[in-house]
Amino acid sequence: PLFGALVAWAWLGHRPGASRVLGLVIGFVGVALLASDRAGLNAGASAHWAVLAMGACLLATFSYAVAASFTHRYLSGIPPLVTATGSQIGAALGLALPALLTWPSAPPSAGAWSAVVALGVLCTGVAYVLYFRLIEQLGPARSLTVTFTVPVFAIVYGALLLGEAVTPWMLACGAVVLCGTTLATGLLRLPIRA
């Protein structure tokens, strides 16, 4: 969401208002606090890999922001189903060779294939149709703001599906994330001074 706002501002001239900026900062702080007990740099060889992993994540989020602004600028007016289908076909073609080169020696089970199909259809296909619709209706920066809620949903899914414990710290950080998201998306706004 932060890169989305910056790229949309620099490229498309979508300047965020005070409520959005505050929401982006609050959402970012909430996610950082939520991840603070799991992420970090430890002394030793693993610190090098941690820095590389963080750099890869930053590059991925920047790429996501550029793609959202690109979609808004050049693909507006194209039905979201068409855009989502095209992006998934392109991704499948791009990953075909690496998939063949790293194919497992034992054939994947029917359960594994079912999981892949379910993730592909529900978590990617349907999600991208909704995502491209959001980009067209709300713009790229506001559409990306909902990704602040991914860690909150991860906690819920972890608790429901894996029996993971939910701590008061997680609940408090989740509330911070949701407050930031409501401000950043415009569902909640700062009072206007008279």
Structure description:
The chain is mainly alpha-helical. It contains eight helices and no strands.
Tally of individual helices: 8
Helix proportion range: over 70%
Mean pLDDT: 86
Strand percentage, roughly? under 5%
Q: What is the H/E string? A: HHHHHHHH
Topology (SSEs and partners):
Elements (H helix, E strand, L loop, with lengths): L1 H11 L5 H18 L9 H30 L5 H22 L8 H29 L1 H6 L4 H13 L5 H18 L9
Helix pairs in contact: 1-3, 2-8, 4-5
Give the gist of this structure:
The chain is an all-alpha fold and 194 residues long. Helices cover 76% and strands 0% of the residues.
Q: Can you give keywords for this protein?
A:
194 residues; 76% helix
